[in-house]
Design a protein that fits this description.
- By secondary structure, this protein is an alpha+beta fold.
- It folds into three domains: 2-97, no CATH class; 99-134; 144-204, Orthogonal Bundle (DNA polymerase, domain 1), CATH 1.10.150.
- Helix content is 54%, strand content 13%.
- The protein has eight helices and five strands, in the order αααβββββααααα.
- The chain has helices at residues 2-6, 9-21, 25-36, 101-143, 157-165, 171-175, 179-186, 190-204, and strands spanning 42-47, 54-55, 58-59, 75-82, 85-92.
- The strands form two sheets. Strands 1-4-5 form a three-stranded mixed β-sheet. Strands 2-3 form a two-stranded antiparallel sheet.
- The protein is rod-shaped, with a radius of gyration of 36 Å.
């Protein structure tokens, strides 16, 4: 659809139709017939007012139209938007499509598929965004002077800063500290310091 909108087909068709409009009436019928034989359907999309309209104080609930058809074109599809809603109309030759509601049902099915794809794409985008944020956070943490220390269970930014102030920047440096000294540096219990040293041993491995 986007390709058709930017192609030369539209302007050329408009010139042809404008030319047909100034030809003698006797010739117009033949030209319309010839032009119509090259078509199987006419479809038009009209952007309507985005806000509700009122007439005599009453709100207009819906807008609808049917695309005019010429020659032997047996199918016309009209789409119009109005106040946040979209109306779809189908006009057919009863000899070609006796039940135009079947076409409408097909549109509903396609809209449902498009909605499902949009929801899926949004979920994937959100997951990718969270992953990107997580990776960025990890990178920033590792890039900081005490980044490796913060990878040890039990050591957060506060403990890492206290260790950095004491000259301890790596798990290897941490492991040579006695539990009681580590407890003093961190301002915590000896038991918790021993647990942190055990986790540091895992990180060093």
């Amino acid at each position: 659809m986007a390709e058709l909108k930017t192609s030369k087909e539209g302007p050329i068709g408009l010139v042809v139709l404008s030319t047909m409009g100034v030809t003698p009436h006797e010739l117009q019928g033949s030209l319309v017939e010839m032009f119509g034989k090259k078509l199987t359907a006419v479809m038009t999309n009209v952007p309507g007012p985005p806000m509700p309209l009122y007439m005599a104080g009453s709100r207009i609930q819906e807008l609808m139209f049917w695309v005019p058809q010429s020659g032997r074109v047996g199918l016309g599809i009209s789409i119009i938007s109005y106040a946040g809603k979209v109306q779809l109309g189908v006009a057919t030759d009863a000899g070609l499509v006796p039940d135009p509601d079947k076409i409408i049902e097909g549109f509903y099915e396609e809209f449902a598929d498009l909605l499902a794809l949009a929801v899926e794409a949004e979920a994937i985008s959100e997951a990718e965004r969270k992953t990107a944020v997580s990776k960025t956070t990890d990178f920033v943490t590792l890039a900081s002077p005490n980044g490796r220390l913060q990878q040890i269970n039990g050591i957060g930014p506060t403990f890492a800063t206290r260790l950095e102030e004491a000259g301890v920047l790596t798990p290897e440096q941490l492991l040579i500290m006695p539990p009681d000294k580590l407890a003093d540096v961190l301002g915590t219990s000896v038991q918790r310091a021993e647990n942190i040293l055990a986790e540091a041993q895992k990180e060093a491995l």
